[in-house]
Amino acid sequence: MKYDVCVVGSGAGGAPIAYELSRAGFNVVVLEKGKYYKEEDFSKDELAITRREMYKPKLEDEFHIINEKSEDGTITTYSGKEYNWSFWNGSMVGGSSNLMSGFFHRLKPNDFKLLSTFGEIKGANVSDWPISYEELEPFYAKVEKVIGVSGVAKAHSFLEPRSSLDFPFKPLQENGVTQWFDKACDVLGYESIPTPRAILPQNALSRSVCSYSNFCGSYPCATGAKGSARAALLQQCNAKIIPEAFVYELKSDDKKVTHALYYDAKGDSHTIEANLFVVAAQAIETSRLLLNSKNRYFPNGLANNNNQVGKNLIFSAGGVGEGRFIFEDLNLDEQKTLMQRGLFFNRSLQQWYEYENGGKHQKGGTIDFLFEHANIISKAMREVYDDSGNILWGKALEEKIKKSITTSRVLTFEVFNDWLPTDDCYVSVDEKQKDKYGVNVGVINLYAHPHDLKVGEFLAQKAVKVLEQMGARTISMSISSSPPPNLVAGGCRFGEDKETSVLDRNCKAHALENLYVTDASFMPTGGSVPYTWTIYANAFRVAEHLKEVLKRN
Amino acid sequence: MTRRVFVKNSFLTVALLVFSKGKLFATVTPLQTIALLQEDLLPLVKQLQSNSALYVLKILNHSKISNADKQFIRNGVKWLNEEAITLYGNTYTKLSYEQRQTLLQTISQTRWGNSFMYAMLAYSMESILGDPIYEINTDQKGWKWLEHETGYPRPQKAFL
Prior knowledge:
By secondary structure, chain A is an alpha+beta fold. Chain A has one domain: FAD/NAD(P)-binding domain (3-Layer(bba) Sandwich). Helices cover 24% and strands 23% of the residues of chain A. Chain A is built from 13 helices and 20 strands. Chain A has helices spanning 15-23, 46-51, 80-83, 114-118, 133-148, 177-188, 229-232, 283-292, 332-338, 376-381, 394-406, 450-470, 532-552; strands at residues 2-8, 28-31, 65-69, 75-79, 193-194, 240-242, 246-252, 257-263, 269-279, 311-326, 347-349, 354-357, 360-363, 365-371, 408-418, 426-434, 440-446, 473-480, 488-491, 515-517. The model of chain A has no long low-confidence stretch (mean pLDDT 97). By secondary structure, chain B is mostly helical. Chain B has one domain (13-139). The A-B interface holds A 42-48, 51-54, 58-60, 81-82, 84, 211, 213-215, 219, 222, 341, 374, 376-377, 380-381, 384, 390-391, 393-395, 397-398, 401-402, 405-406 and B 40-44, 62-68, 101, 104, 108, 114, 117-118, 121-122, 125-126, 129-131, 133-134, 143, 145-156, 158-159.
């Protein structure tokens, strides 16, 4: 049979397309590489989920080649399977949105026009978006209602314009330490803002309330409260989902994609025919699929007429930091408050989303605060080395672990700022190395612009000041050029100029009439927040366009 | 038990040949070496009855542990015994507590030794603090030790 729409990938970029178009009466099929797990399959098994990474492919079977370029120009090559360097996220129906923490921030209006607002940065391919914040705003609002975003739209220096006064869902319950945080910010003159979360604080949207399990980020949600693409969209529509279907090639003629070819779990090949094809396999794999789909019309890969596919890969720049609160500094009530289990620490700072530096107005970013993850094995293992870097064992180690875990707690922060797009950060394909399917593996060419580190360090210093004011000890921060594999975008940027972009403003490939890309690949710049809300919103925007296209046809 | 399963399971229970200066010096059972090493690294494994050595057997058969990591465990057991022979003229399980501690101190200064101790500490920690569905962390004694309340729902089956 021929489908109206074939969606490759079932995460935050693909699921809104499947949800909207199937509900509009179109015949939609979704091809997902991973398995189809549902709420009843999920647990908080630390060994399975975070130690053995059960939702990621085994690196011996599927891996990337990584070329890392340093500031002095030298390039070091790593095989992901040999160096245990994974860029996989959630290989499952709903994709990595199952495993997100659900920190939901919108981009700001100036994120859509970085070039015209802040000017060029040497060595970076900064570009304005072909759409404005105002065009995306209705879809940010739609995500709040359909995916379910909880929080308070508190006024602050960079609160983006909103079409609704507040979030449709009240904030989640918070740990009492947030009051210490707010107080510290008051003293410092910082604007503490509640972090919106894609988590339901009540039964709604045919899903159950958050259970405050204390194991949220990195874990799939067993109640459905987390707004994963699976729980919020795919389980709420009748799109046909084919799990364990690895799409290895798209067939096309000179104008249209005609077929998607995929391998099932047994390695047997299948073909899907459709009128429209939407690729949303997460940024790196989307570019890899297009580059691997070569034919006589597209000898360099599908939609790659101008050698733009894979280019301008970006991540979220920034880093992490932390401070420890210890019982010796606290009274009994404060100790109890510190150890409150399960409640969220939803606080962020966006006061320096833009800031003045040396007389120049420049882009900054976001700082999210959260408690150290409750994973007990990880917490114990971080005590294995002493302050001088010597390995500990025996009673000395056991006592250190016991004291650390039972009489203190770590508050962490994450800095999000722009990873500037450059010529040296891109996806290509290795001509020799193949994965378990026999398909050429993706090559991730990495380079971080030095400007990214400067901004990250500026923001981290602000976070450190808050921790100091709160009375935390052993405060540390780490701003680096390491790419977070779960915060990846670009590779198929959208734009008006066919020479410098892959997609048009509707995320349709310039070179083909029926090929769309709706994961984070489309983003020319990434903003300074986690991407998921913007991926969802943009996919809902493209879905509106596709409804019109399908009606016309 | 099929022949294939028998071969896979046998590493920790059959003798491992240890050579010194190119000559066969001794045979050791890796399971005994690992069990004693785990007690030396994390004495609680004995007190908490966490089935830590048998857990390493599961790791050696685990679908998501790489072949390189599995081989590193096997090599580590062999190299530990070779170091024991070099330093004290006997295999690890035959050494006194003080000798074993000195040996651990010595290998902790080497790259392989540090990595091997870290790996064995990690698997031992997993056996103390992982979910009892894996036949470890008996009666949740490890969680009680750290006043840890696990997340719910707990797993219904082990992921191996």
